[in-house]
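Appendix B, Record 12. Input sequence as logged:
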Amino acid sequence: MAIYILLSTLTEEGLRTLKERPGRIQEVNKEIEVLGAKVVSQYAVLGPYDFVNIVEAPDNATIVKVSVELGARGTVRIMSLPAIPIAQFVERIRKA
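Logged structural output:
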């Protein structure tokens, strides 16, 4: 499975939902699993993003599906970044 970092920012509607139903975060994590990915770890952060999620997925297409499905709800904006483990990164550089 590939690793992805999802940086998310809540919209005003998303903030209202979170305030009314804080447990919604865990519900969304289960929905992500139904879409074929898995949240490995998750952090609330201060700054331009509200959450950093480390997610496993079989491929880019799955992450596109997750990002579009969640983003289409109007409660969150997501930036998706593929992540390469350092050992694998170094190995690829050596072979270049």
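The chain has one domain: 2-95.
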